[in-house]
Amino acid sequence: MNPILEATNLSKTFAGMRAVNDVHIELYTDRVTGIIGPNGAGKTTLVHLLTGHVQPDQGQIHFEGRDITRLSADQRVMGQVCRTFQVVDIFPRLTVFENIQIARITREAKNLRWFGGAAKEAREAVEAALEEVGMWGFRNRRAEQLSHGQQRRIDLAVTLATDPKLCFLDEPTSGVSPKERDQMLELIARLAEAKRTTFVLIEHDMEVIFNLCAHVICMHRGAILAEGTPDDIRANKEIKEIYLGEEV
Amino acid sequence: MGMSWRLVLPIVLILAFLVTVPIWGGRYPTYLTIQIMLLVVFALGFNLLLGYTGLLSFGQAGFFAVGAYVSALILLQVPSLLLGIVGGVLAAGLVALVLGYLSVRLTEIYFSMLTLSFGMMIYSLVWRWRAVTGGDDGLTGVPRAPLDLLVVSIDLSDVMNYYYFVLAVTVAAVFLMYRITKSPLGLTFQAIRDSATRAAFVGIPVRRYRLYAFVIAGLYAGLAGAMLAPLERTVTPIYSHWIYSAEPILATLIGGIYVFAGPIVGAVLFIGIKEIIVRLTEHWMIWMGGIVIVLVLGFRGGVVGTILGWLDKDQETARAEEEKPEAPGAKRQPEAGE
């Protein structure tokens, strides 16, 4: 099976510090992949590079066999690679409904419609997305008025509304209550099961990784230290040393 | 278009009021109302940038002046009002396209400073290009040419007649802007305002859409300027100075940047307050500054924004009752009428 995304020799340096160092990574559609590593390991920078948020100094990225290395973030999203951020990033002054709607309008390339009302656009798809994340009841609220956990759900719904084939979730459960965390994990598991989207999780929470991911990549100092099944990772001595004291 | 009677009724009343101004008001109130309408058009364009797209431009007077000068130059050669206005608007749009292409590469204060620089470059050009612009003397004797509509030619030489032309254009401009802000394009601008990064990550080419907003704002500034030239019959470099860019900024801040009607109400208040103060003191700018500070601090979100906020609070409690969190994936109950 060909990987949905393959990156080779990927490197990025910030102010003399190599944040990502000659990384080779392959992502496959048949499994949820987790990326772990201590703070400063380069996980988020790697995702920045793969999603076009930051351009690499060197290396190539191929998505479904196509070179996307020099494509901008918006071009990659339209090519169906999307992501969420560590810190929730939604449209605070827009309503919950409009948050999803703008993603759908963009996906359907209707942004340039300048006279017809936006309210009627993509209604069914927005309704389905809000039901999916259990936020229909809040559709008329401005996003800034929601709790952090609710904003996380909207963040995910906005991302999914772009119809991604590949979706990176950067710490999707950080800062939420245990109940909201369980709901979020259940939701991701259900979406992964539907196999419309390939998910890649960046997480600190090992329980989340081992519950959801069939393949785990461990990064350290900008490079990939090890990868394999959750059992392989649990048994890896080097990883245990890095996480000194943490249960892996 | 789904407008409720609560919105339609005030609009009809305002239009009825505006249509009758020359009848009961006399020449000066008519002239003053034209000034307000020009600022409404100018400020609405400006607020598409600030309130809807999140870009603060200090250079809008440049586009206003391009509209005014090009309109004046055409009218001095060809006595056709329509040609003068259209020429002024298109010229301002073209200049906005070129300068916007360079400006939207930056954001926040860097964008603001760049627009300020470009605006002052236009001012400098207007000041020094005497052969075309008349330098510090400006262009004088601009005719209020007739409006030629195919077989009909309407005489607008009297300011009372010109008023109706400006009113018709302003109503059309306000309606058009309203439609833009409610359209998918308007929603796209608002998404960029809220988070440019997130906008890019739903697939919006942010820089391109910022340029669209910049050009539309330039067209609106140019339209206001183009209509000013035949009103004043004179165009001088002061219209391109950055101080003139402050007028739509202040009008918008007074009215409210996140509400469509903000710049409209703000323009009325700005010119109304200014008109009263200049009669009382020659140091009107000091008093105007004080009043603007009080209004901006006392009405966070502008006068319109604050009033709407008060009204919205009453609905908040009722809405909170309606909303119940749901488990993800739970099917919603159909609403009445669905």
Label the structural class of chain A.
alpha/beta
Main sheet record of chain B: 2 strands, antiparallel
State the oligomer.
heterodimer
What is the radius of gyration of chain A computed over CA atoms, rounded to a whole number of angstroms? 18 Å
Helix content of chain B: over 70%
Which geometry of chain B do the CA atoms define?
globular
Number of strands of chain B: 4
Distance between the termini of chain A: 30 Å
CATH class of the largest domain in chain A: Alpha Beta
In short:
Helix content of chain A is 35%, strand content 23%. Chain A is α/β, with parallel strands linked by helices. The longest helix of chain B has 27 residues, at 206-232.
Characterize the structure shown.
The complex is a heterodimer of chains A (248) and B (338). Chain A is an alpha/beta fold and 248 residues long. Chain A folds into 2 domains: 1-80 and 163-248, P-loop containing nucleotide triphosphate hydrolases (Rossmann fold, 3-Layer(aba) Sandwich), CATH 3.40.50.300; 92-162, no CATH class. Chain A contains 9 helices and 10 strands. In chain A, strands 6-7-8-3-9-10 form a 6-stranded mixed beta sheet, with helices on both faces. The radius of gyration of chain A is 18 Å and the shape is globular. Chain B has a two-stranded antiparallel sheet. A two-stranded antiparallel ribbon of chain B has the order 2-3. Chain B contains 14 helices and 4 strands. In chain B, helix 2 (27-52) crosses helix 11 and helix 2 (27-52) crosses helix 12 (262-280). Chain B has helices at 5-25, 27-52, 60-77, 81-103, 108-128, 130-133, 159-182, 184-194, 196-200, 206-232, 242-255, 262-280, 284-298, 302-322; strands at 139-140, 147-149, 152-154, 234-235. Chain B has one domain (5-319): ABC transporter involved in vitamin B12 uptake, BtuC.
